[in-house]
Write a structure and sequence with these properties.
The complex is a heterodimer of chains A (about 160) and B (about 425). Chain A is α+β, with helices and mostly antiparallel strands. Chain A has helices spanning about 10-20, 75-85, 90-105, 115-120, 135-155, and strands at about 30-35, 45-55, 60-70. The longest helix of chain A has 23 residues, at about 135-155. In chain B, helix 4 runs parallel beside helix 5 (about 145-155) and helix 11 (about 315-335) packs parallel to helix 14. The chains are: A alpha+beta (about 160), B alpha/beta (about 425).
Chain lengths: ~160, ~425
């Protein structure tokens, strides 16, 4: 008999929770943000390092995402999978990934995740059917977005 | 003083459970609902639900205004509930029972009013620069943040009684914390996380000796043990309807009449005035002074019925029932190595909130596994973040018991905790 919990805690989630990728805070970085989930007290500190890539038309390429995450299996796995997925992409390339992820997560399970687009993050999408866990999954991604905004604000100064 | 209550029905768990229609709820075809989150919101027995429905069906109208018979009927029902609530908490006068929207509003009412006095306000009821407000490290945010804000508004200093490693108040430093500078001692009767029952009577006496007011957060205690404001010797007490088998949206502030009569109002508006002219107003006597606007009438009627329900069962019997469940839960959890309970061992000073952490499994994940088994528990910091920080954790999992909780439910919970650990530590995963 399959355990319904396995749709939430997929093998990939458990693996990333136990062996988080890119964890720890590293230098250099362009922006650092600290996000807290006020309902459960979970925290993430996330650093973003970008580089202008002339071979990609001057796009900003994500060179590093480093982080320290205190939280549940879902939030830790989400940070780990996100860093794996986004490091090496340009910020423009990351955009549709995040957009799709948010769409699936807010759909209560009615929108099927596109694995081609979001890769391993598909393993997190079981949370869409567990409304209380959506915040856990989105926390790292929101932190990335906030860090990106911060680097842009710095660029304008 | 009111006469002590005598239970009017036997504590028969099966018949009690039949009073709670929600206990028949199934989460899915194979999963019965095991409700172990009464500390967050309690379930309502049929007499409480019926009282509200009956009131709305027969007597609903605006209270305390209008001369028609419906207004009278509604006012009678409302005031009857106030009297019932007052009797339940041992209030010497029912005018000391202020109906609020909840315990949070009751605590904010006191904290706000104590900072709003002027030269006409007795010094005891006016917090000023240089004064101190003493709280404890185990407070729910509802009995911490209002005092932080009062300190900020008035220039007073906030201090707190720390916690011991044994999950009790550390009273060794009390003489230097509770001094003639202390205006207010605000503390919880019973921790919503640790289950610790504080020595309120002794602390209120110590506060009175230095001229400080004692404000008691009784949201967690009143539904679970004999509760009498006169016996405790406090100056104010806050209660929550929905934590004592009653409706949401209603709570109680009890305060000594002489205090209430001398305090400036909190919310202002209709129903709380004596006279109004274009440039100023004078205010009604308590409790009306603190009940601006239309009160939560049907909820108050429901809360009166909840007090009657609890009284009929007997608070001693309820306390004994929940003690036994707590002892069983603590014994069960002690058999699981990875579990660390946040709270003291079983004793009469230990109530039925059982919070714990598991090495390597986050509370959210524990709660998820328990939920998959139908067991409804609270996870997170339970609005007591400083307490969790004190014990080096960001959150915990908490089971909390009520009159309808069974030993079998406690056993299912303990078993569920063990299964949660297995799930996350299974070798194959």
């Amino acid at each position: 008999m399959t355990n319904p919990l396995d749709s939430l805690y997929t093998e990939l989630v458990i693996e990333h929770d136990k062996r988080p990728q890119n964890a720890g805070l590293r230098e250099p970085f362009d922006a650092e943000v600290h996000h807290v989930n006020p309902t459960c007290g979970d925290e993430i500190t996330l650093r973003l390092h970008l580089d202008r890539d002339d071979r990609a038309g001057g796009s900003l390429r994500i060179r590093d995402i480093s982080y320290e995450a205190i939280g549940c299996a879902m939030s830790r796995a989400s940070a780990s999978i996100m860093s794996d997925l986004l490091i090496g992409r340009t910020t423009e390339e990351a955009l549709p990934v995040i957009e799709h992820l948010e769409t699936v997560m807010s759909s209560r399970g009615t929108v099927e995740a596109d694995e081609e687009l979001i890769g391993d993050a598909v393993a997190l999408m079981g949370a869409a059917k567990f409304p209380a866990r959506i915040k856990c999954v989105l926390m790292a991604w929101k932190a990335y977005q906030a860090a990106l905004v911060e680097t842009q604000a710095m660029g304008e100064r | 003083m009111t006469a002590p209550f005598h239970p009017t029905r036997p504590f028969d768990l099966e018949s009690i459970r039949r009073d709670f229609p929600i206990l028949d709820r199934r989460l899915d075809a194979d999963t019965a609902m095991v409700y172990l989150d009464s500390g967050a919101t309690s379930q309502r027995p049929r007499p409480v639900i019926d009282a509200e429905v009956d009131f709305l069906t027969h007597d609903n109208a605006a209270v305390k205004r209008g001369a028609h018979r419906m207004a009278e009927a509604a006012t009678d029902a409302f005031e009857h509930a106030r009297t019932t609530i007052g009797r339940f908490i041992g209030a010497p006068r029912s005018e000391e029972v202020v109906i609020t929207r909840g315990a949070t509003e009751a605590l904010n009412l006191v904290a706000r009013s104590l900072g709003d006095g002027d030269d006409t306000t007795p010094a005891q009821l006016r917090v000023s620069p240089g004064d101190e407000i003493l709280v404890t490290e185990m407070e729910h945010h509802a009995n911490l943040v209002p005092w932080q804000e009062l300190a900020r508004r008035t220039g007073a200093t906030l201090r707190w009684i720390p916690l011991t490693d044994e999950f009790t108040l550390d009273l060794t430093g009390l003489p230097s914390l509770l001094t003639e500078r202390t205006k207010v001692l605000a503390l919880t009767h019973q921790s919503n996380v640790l289950g610790t029952v504080n020595p309120v009577r002794e602390l209120a006496e110590a506060a009175r000796a230095v001229g400080a007011l004692t404000v008691l957060d009784a949201a967690q205690s009143a539904p679970h043990m004999p509760f009498d404001v006169s016996e405790l010797g406090v100056d104010f007490a806050a209660l929550s309807g929905h934590k004592m088998l009653g409706p949401t949206g209603v709570g109680v502030l009890w305060g000594r009449y002489e205090h209430l009569a001398a305090m400036p109002p909190y919310l202002t508006g209709g129903s709380m005035i004596e006279t109004v002219t274009m440039d100023r107003s004078t205010y009604a006597a308590p409790p009306a002074r603190f009940e601006a606007g239309t009160p939560p009438v049907s909820q108050t009627v429901g809360l009166g019925a909840a007090c009657d329900y609890l009284s009929a069962l007997g608070m001693e019997q309820i306390a004994a029932h929940e003690q036994a469940l707590t002892t069983r839960a603590l014994e069960g959890l002690s058999g699981i190595d990875a579990v660390r309970v946040l709270g003291p061992g079983a004793s009469p000073q230990r109530s039925g909130a059982v919070a714990f952490v598991i090495d390597g499994v986050h509370p959210h994940d524990v709660g998820q596994v328990l939920d998959s088994l139908g067991i409804q528990v609270r996870v997170g910091h339970h609005c007591a973040w400083p307490l969790h920080r004190r014990y080096g954790v960001t959150g915990s999992t908490r089971a909390s018991f009520s009159v309808h909780t069974t030993e079998a439910e406690v056993d299912a919970f303990v078993d569920g905790v063990a299964r949660a650990i297995d799930y996350f530590q299974a070798a194959s995963r």
